[in-house]
Design a protein that fits this description.
This protein has 721 residues and is an alpha/beta fold. Helices cover 55% and strands 15% of the residues.
Length: 721
């Protein structure tokens, strides 16, 4: 059973967070519910609330946005539905219709996308989908929040009669207006409206000559407003019809109310459901604003938050365009209690509050701003003692209040508790208060509770160093400027930098030196040693950071080299394939050339066709069976490789040509080639030997094939020995 004290929620400023959450609600009922959020009493409820919020948050980043859930509160309508013989007005029915439409759209959406939002879909299964009420209301009330003419036959006839009378009234009034205007009985304004009736603006001297009912007069008395006698009878009939119309409308509304009355609980469930969705939506929007996520939950009593931000501080600094420094803290069986020390204004208290606030936020169903690799578990109690809490009304001093708090901690603290104490042991004599605080801490330690405390007491730092499942931590400072770095360093106690900070703030060194002499020499040396160790720790942190940066650079360079190597390997393979293909084609060409030579000598077509057919069969047997699509891909790939190779060959040839032009100032002496000399083509690499020479033509033998080449295009490689 989870139970977190009200005072803890106030200390950790959860209610301030809830105010910020409520600002994202779109309904009044949702805002009230958001402000009333408290930590859940069971793990299942907590997990379910977090999953609901996380699912809604995911909807902001995909195309399947959850439909609008806004609605007007229907509390008044629900109360009237429970009162017998009462009836709702058209606007109230429109509210019921609107809330039904909203719920139906959400239910249909969640059913369609239940794989995306399983928890929200499961929550929606308790709500009944209905269109009966919606159809009924829409058949009676129009979009202008009026009862439709065809709501009943009597209403239709009554309104038709009303419209006829209005036309008659208008016609008779215009007739009277024209008549009296021609007689010059009317004022320049001619007519006016009184009590929603059109009246003639008659000159006072002619009031007795105009028949009708006097409805009033002007302030000066020069004008008398008269409703013509011809329209009076029609007006009376119109009043009667309006009364009959209102009676019929009331009857229809009562009938519609009686129809909706059995669905009162359904409407109540609809409002509750939409208010619940509104709170989930507000939680998701708040999570989006603070980059909140759902961390991993574990049952192994391990609490690890990485790059955690205090949400209130984060949003405040965001408005000011200032940087917020994240913290990383680990609590587990091997390190259950952390004692944070160091000078004031270094961030000890905000670190402690960050841990506490994020924990109670999680246990209230709110996502938290941490790294995705963070791990958390739920505590049954979160106890806090933050601030001096001096009370004039209760006649309690700071220390008296703290003793009361410690007494409460001693009663409630166990292995399922997270305790957070700021400036532990302060408020009394340093030595006596420190001793008592040390005893309390030992009790919490023995009960295997998890906790974080901040302190300046040396005995608590020593205790944390001696006990195996407790560790020191300090807020890091710049060793030269003594400016806070707002970074928590685990494993080492922090110096208070009392004298260093005093000197930095302009206190004369003589006074500081005099103060040092007033206290025990060993304490000064102890504090100085801690300060020195902290400076060394800061240097090591910087060195470690530098090494990490270098390591990342080397890794990046290695990855680049590996990628380049793979690219070169792929190109070599492609070039090898092209070379093999070209060699095969050269070989085939040589065979065809031999057949052509043979055919020229014997002129036997049958032998030629037989040999060609054999060559084709042999080549086809070597080919793999591939689809036309694969063949098309291979052809495109081969073309790309050939194009790339041709580009590079042309580039190399151009470079060689330029180089030759640069080097060869005088022409080389012409070499006389002989049969048997080893030669190669200009700009070529393949080397062959000359078989025959005839009329400036040479037959060059390359081993697998021979070719006829002009002697001018050959270069001597080696003369025949």
């Amino acid at each position: 059973m989870i139970n977190i004290h009200e005072k803890t929620l106030q200390d950790l400023e959860l209610y301030t967070v809830l105010k910020q959450v409520s600002l994202h609600c779109v309904t009044t009922l949702g805002k009230n519910r958001a402000l009333a959020i408290t930590p859940f009493s069971s793990k299942d409820e907590t997990y379910n609330a977090l999953l609901l919020t996380n699912e809604y948050l995911s909807s902001f980043y995909n195309d399947n946005r959850i439909p609008n859930h806004g609605f007007d509160t229907i509390d008044k309508e629900l109360q009237l539905l429970e009162i017998e013989n009462s009836f709702l007005d058209p606007l109230s029915f429109k509210k019921l219709s609107s809330i039904t439409v909203s719920v139906n759209e959400i239910l249909k959406f969640l059913k369609k996308f239940n794989t995306y939002y399983p928890k929200l879909y499961q929550a929606s299964l308790e709500i009944t989908y209905t269109e009966v009420v919606l159809t009924k209301i829409d058949s009676i009330i129009d979009r202008f929040n009026e009862v439709k003419d065809n709501a009943s036959e009597l209403l239709y006839k009554t309104r038709q009669a009303k419209n006829g009378l209005k036309n008659k009234i208008n016609t008779s009034f215009i007739s009277s207006l024209n008549t009296y205007h021609n007689l010059d009985y009317l004022d320049d304004i001619r007519e006016s409206v009184i009590d929603n009736h059109r009246v003639l603006a008659v000159k006072a001297m002619y009031r007795r000559k105009v028949k009708g009912a006097i409805m009033g007069g002007s302030k000066t008395g020069s004008i008398v407003y008269i409703e013509p006698e011809t329209t009076l009878q029609f007006t009376r009939e119109l009043h009667n019809l309006e009364y009959e119309e209102q009676e019929e409308v009331t009857r229809i509304l009562k009938q519609l109310t009686d129809f909706c009355r059995p669905y009162t609980i359904l409407f109540q469930n609809y409002q509750t459901f939409l208010a619940h969705i509104d709170v989930i939506y507000a939680k998701a929007k708040y999570a989006q604003s603070i980059n909140g996520i759902l961390p991993t939950f574990t049952e192994k009593r391990r609490f690890y938050i990485k790059d955690a931000y205090h949400p209130l501080l984060y949003l405040t600094n965001l408005e000011k365009n200032e940087k917020t420094f994240p913290q990383s803290i680990t609590l587990h069986q091997g390190s259950r209690i952390i004692v944070i020390s160091g000078p004031n204004a270094g961030g000890k208290s905000i670190t402690l509050k960050t841990v506490g606030l994020l924990q109670v936020m999680l246990q209230s169903g709110l996502l938290i701003p941490v790294h995705e690799r963070s791990e958390v578990f739920l505590f049954e109690r979160v106890l806090s003692d933050i601030g001096d809490n001096q009370s004039i009304e209760n006649h309690l001093s700071t220390y008296s209040y703290r003793l009361k708090q410690m007494n409460y901690f001693l009663k409630k603290c166990n292995k399922n508790t997270l305790f957070l104490i700021d400036e532990f042991g302060t408020g009394s004599d340093p030595e006596l208060g420190g001793a008592l605080a040390e005893t309390f801490l030992e009790v919490f330690y023995e009960r295997e509770a998890f906790g974080i405390i901040t302190t300046h007491y040396a005995n608590l730092k020593i205790l944390a160093n001696e006990l195996p499942y407790m560790q020191n931590a300090s807020m890091m400072f710049n060793e030269r400027s003594l400016e806070p770095l707002y970074k928590l360093s685990l494993g080492q106690a922090g110096s208070s930098f009392t004298f260093e900070v005093a000197q930095k703030n302009g206190i004369p060194y003589s006074l500081i030196n005099k103060s040092k002499k007033k206290i025990e020499r060993s304490k000064v040396r102890f504090d100085a040693t801690i300060a020195k160790l902290q400076k060394e720790r800061t240097k090591l942190e910087k060195t470690e950071q530098s090494l990490k940066v270098n390591e990342q650079k080397k890794k990046s360079e290695t990855d680049k080299l590996e990628a380049t190597n793979q690219k070169i390997q792929r190109k070599l393979e492609s070039y090898q394939e092209l070379y093999d293909s070209n060699q095969r084609l050269i070989y085939l060409g040589q065979k065809v050339n031999d057949l052509a030579e043979k055919f020229r000598n014997n002129n036997k077509k049958r032998d030629l066709m037989s040999e060609l057919f054999k060559i084709v069969q042999i080549e086809n047997s070597k080919r793999k069976k591939i689809t036309p699509k694969q063949r098309k891909v291979e052809i495109i790939k081969a073309k790309e490789i050939k194009t790339e190779v041709d580009k590079k060959i042309n580039l190399i040839r151009k470079k060689k040509k330029i180089e030759k032009q640069r080097i060869s100032i005088t022409p080389k002496p012409k070499v006389i080639l002989k049969v048997g000399d080893r030669v190669r083509m200009e700009d070529g690499r393949a080397i062959g030997s000359i078989d025959t020479l005839e009329k400036n033509k040479a037959v060059v033998n390359y081993g697998t094939f021979t070719t006829n080449v002009s002697v001018d295009k050959l270069e001597l490689v080696e003369q025949k020995k």
